[in-house]
Amino acid sequence: MGGKVSHQPHKLDKLGSIPRRRYGVHFRISNSNDKVGTVVALDNLTERQILSKLSYWMTGNWWYGSKKYPNGIPNITWGDTYATSQEMNVRGAGMVAVTLATTVKHGYANKANGGADLDLNLVKLRSKQLMVAMFRSHKLNRGSAGWGRSWQSSHWAYLMGFAHMLNPLDYEFDRERVKAVIVDEANYQLGHPVEYWKDLNGNYMPYIGYYPDYFKTGVRTGDSAFEEMLWCSNLLDFAAMTYPDHPNSDAWYQKAVDFAAIALSTADDAAAMGLPGFNVRYDYKIVNHGIVNAAYSEAAYMAQANKLHHRIYGDFANPIYDFNAENLYAAIQTMYVPNSPSVKPGMDDWGNRRPYTYLVYDASMKGTSWYNLRLKDIVAMQAKNTQFGKIVMNTTEDKYPACDAYAGQCISMALLFKLFS
Hints:
By secondary structure, the protein is mainly α. The chain contains 15 helices and six strands. The protein has helices at 45-66, 83-107, 120-136, 139-142, 153-166, 172-190, 226-242, 249-263, 267-273, 294-297, 301-312, 325-333, 355-364, 368-384, 403-419, and strands at 21-22, 28-29, 198-199, 277-278, 287-288, 291-292. It has a two-stranded antiparallel sheet with strand order 1-2. Strands 3-4 form a two-stranded antiparallel ribbon. The chain has a two-stranded antiparallel ribbon with strand order 5-6.
């Protein structure tokens, strides 16, 4: 199987022993108390109702109306490589693929049960067609005109892979092309330098790594690298879990651990680890877009998502993914409006009604009371929408252009966190 794991001391061991993998059917992490492989028998009918209605909209109005896709495999294109175009089209496809795959695998409720009467074969097909469209439009297939090996591409590849884990493609040739994209993006991350928000003296660190090929130069005045390091960690951990026989599997795994620990560290943590910088503010809040931003503080759920991969595969998760978890979750709760599904004004610059954003984080941390408030609000949003199944009504609620696709991904992962607890 994969190469032997080094037992040489590692700089992050200053936090405590970092367990190493040992290989079996899937590799294991020793010295962890994390529960694995247990599917909790919960009804989760409300989540199934929401996902069923949303999948109805995605395979209808979204597919033919919003995207104008054909009745077949779409050709994913974009006008530019910025977030306004390439992200919306490639990441959007990945988020919808995850939503549809979750609905087929775990989320269906028919109309009699408060959901929507779906053609499940069509839902499954559309999810697979989006995966095919994603790997066809990657640089491996389109060359320099394709997406990949850039600022957010690890997250897009992760979404494609996550959807494929739930809803595998039918043909070996296509499965190998999914693997090729994930391997390519994981290998790209092996050469990706660490991103820090500030150094230990409080000076802003420069944008490095993939950002100069996008649009950001200079220093990270108002943008922590918290989210970026975690989505890179997601892809690396997922690749190592999914393809343990690959010769780079050990290297992917170790880089996933490194990126997660660096993302989750305050200045004091960084000093203890001998690192030159950090990404988490002293009060465990995250700065992005120039503000203390709840919408980016909730990205801590991505560290918990690494644990989710291991649980789905019946494996133990590395305890590093829980580093500062309770502190980060306690901090974001100070940004929540008490007894409300909302966050405080000025703390989410994407909109004023985005309960799904925080639902997934609450699910990952078992914040039941907050979770229930947000789930109820999502039901209300979907019920009042003029398009059956759609969630977001307007840009005041959420101005992210792919907001309903994003909502679907968040709700899907929230359900999976509940199922694999």
